[in-house]
Design goal:
Elements (H helix, E strand, L loop, with lengths): L2 E5 L2 E3 L5 E8 L8 E6 L6 E6 L8 E3 L7 E6 L4 E6 L8 E7 L9 E5 L2
Parallel strand pairs: 2-10
Antiparallel strand pairs: 1-3, 3-8, 4-5, 4-9, 5-6, 7-8, 9-10
Amino acid sequence: EIRLVESGGGLVQPGGSLRLSCAASGFPFASTVMKWVRQPPGKGIEWVSTGLVGMAANITTYAFSGKGRFTTIRDDAKNMLYLQMNSLTRDDSAVYFCARLRDDWRGQGAQVTVSS
């Protein structure tokens, strides 16, 4: 059974940081390109970042809104994907999903709310 389970969401003040985790199972994670996407309230899905495979796994691509603030990290030994988010703004409030790039298989999502 393919499973993606996000955790680490919550309420954070503007300017704060949060780290999301995604536990993957049921498929060969180390050879799978992963991504983070998000869905702000009342809006559609937005691409956040992509976690590449293999030696380049620490080189990620970002949506413009996250560039310089978001870092995607993968730990292939633990089948884990992380999203480190810094300097958060209210516009970053959304449900965040980790997903497989090739078929958009997603987890249940983690709610991130940026508010004072």
